[in-house]
Fold:
Amino acid sequence: MAAIRLICGVDEAGRGPLAGPVFAAAVVFNPGRRAPAGIADSKILSAPERERLAVLIKERALAWSVAWAGVEEIDRLNILQASLLAMRRAVESLAVLPHEVLFDGRQCPVLGVPARAIVDGDAKVRVIAAASILAKTERDAEMRRLHLRFPQYGFDEHKGYPTRAHLRALRRHGVCEVYRRSFGPVRELLERGG
Structure:
């Protein structure tokens, strides 16, 4: 009988926003259990569907973890390197050691186990899609928490993405500590004394 291989899927959420951490999740499905039905790229699921699936993924996965890189790390390293750092942290926080790690995107962080990057992996590989759901739901929850501290920006609505309403609020209220100062709109406002 062939040995069971544990495959880990990893994805991130929050590369584009102007504020808040970038999150990553790692998921290892239990080889002896069927994965929840309906798992897909988090971007095509409604928020309630993502929340429902996140609970099932956490219940049924052999292992899962979520990690992040904060705004200071994003500004110091750049968003790509901070995303890779968050992904590495997620894998290293797993309770089991996978045989192979599959990452969504073009690059993998340096790990002690075999890893592959798969472009559009969140749409092609179910375990990566599961990770995309956990990363997105955890990041959205963090942005709702930030909204309670800084309600003037509307983080609960736009989750930090540069919508018209968000950019208006940013110009009106200025830059607070949860903003990524290296990102264009924030940097330009700071240069103008905002």
The radius of gyration is 17 Å. Residues 51 and 137 are 6 Å apart (CA to CA). Residues 7-148 form a domain with the Nucleotidyltransferase; domain 5 fold (CATH 3.30.420.10).
